[in-house]
Amino acid sequence: MTTTPAPVASVVRRQATGVAVALGAGGARGLAHLVALEALDELGVRPVAIAGSSIGAIIGAAYAAGMPARVLRSFVLASFRLRPRVVAKLLEARVGKISELISRSGIGNPVLVDGERILDLFWPEAVPDRFEGLKIPFTAIATDYHLRSEVAFRSGPLTPAVGASMAIPGLVRPVVIGDQVLIDGGAVNPLPYGDLMGSGAVVIAVDVCGAAFVSEARVPEPVEAMFGASQILMSALVQRMLERQPPDLMVRPHVGSFAGLDFFRAQDILAAAEPIKEQIKRSLESALGR
Q: Which long-range contacts link 237-245 to residues 24+ away (Cβ below 8 Å)?
């Protein structure tokens, strides 16, 4: 039997006057971030800083632009309500071609998409072009493919930085910024709370890599298996991070039964994450002395 961790593990041991939020990688499961952000809105708490990796960067940037989490929830549900429209947008963002299945360099990838174009197609118009236009300080985490190291973006053009943070190998084309080839931030830092520690704020980390769960012995499809393997690696990374230094408040929505590409199950993912809302509120009220 699989042991499921508590959705909210509080380790706050001090009073604080602010809140900083780290939103982790995890594909479609990251839609659960919206529920955690709704808890802050309902408490009237505005984060002093947000850091995001992969899906956490996508949602974190939109929230940092000043959009309430409830508005983002409505936007997401409306975006994925019409499957044909979403598929059409993905095809519009596709950079691979069927002819590239066999190329000079070997086997190509006809399903590869441009992450920056995906953001242009799916982000609300209120999201600015540059970090400097955000209303909350925001950090997007990406990975330098060749140096195998973390890259943190806090200023400059926003879309390329978040596009790099979400550049899942094999699915989203790497982003080149300067002399750096950048891929998914989850490869090195799937839950970027470390840089927020020591700020004096209560640091909330929302982990959506997904806990192990018991299911039927089903063999995953190739793309699902590739994505799932990356989630296993990210979960192991997060565990090592927690052993070294945990955040003040660790949040783990019960979304492990969803696949990383289950975006069309947005409503179900949000419903599964709903219990964390009241638990976050209680923990923060205690930490902030309310």
A: 237/188, 237/189, 237/190, 237/191, 238/24, 238/190, 238/191, 238/207, 238/209, 241/191, 241/193, 241/194, 245/194, 245/197
Which residues are the active-site residues? 54, 184
Q: Which residues contact 102 (CB under 8 A, 6 or more apart)?
A: 108
Residue 172 is given by DSSP the state B
Tokens of 211: 């806990």
Residue 255: exposure state from Cβ atoms within 10 A (0-12, 13-18, ≥19): buried
Give the three-state DSSP class for 283: helix
Crossing angle of the two packed helices 33-43 and 55-64, in degrees rounded to 10: 30
Report residue 100's pLDDT band, with 50, 70 and 90 as the boundaries. very low
- Total-model pTM: 0.88
| Range of lowest pLDDT (79-93, 132-146, 248-262, 265-279) | 79-93
Q: Are 23 and 265 in contact (CB under 8 A)?
A: no
For residue range 205-256, list pLDDT tens digits in order: 999 986 665 556 677 777 777 777 888 888 899 999 999 999 999 999 999 8
- From the number of C-beta atoms within 10 Å of its C-beta (0-12, 13-18, 19+), residue 177 rates as middle
> What is the Cα–Cα distance from 276 to 251, expressed in whole angstroms?
7
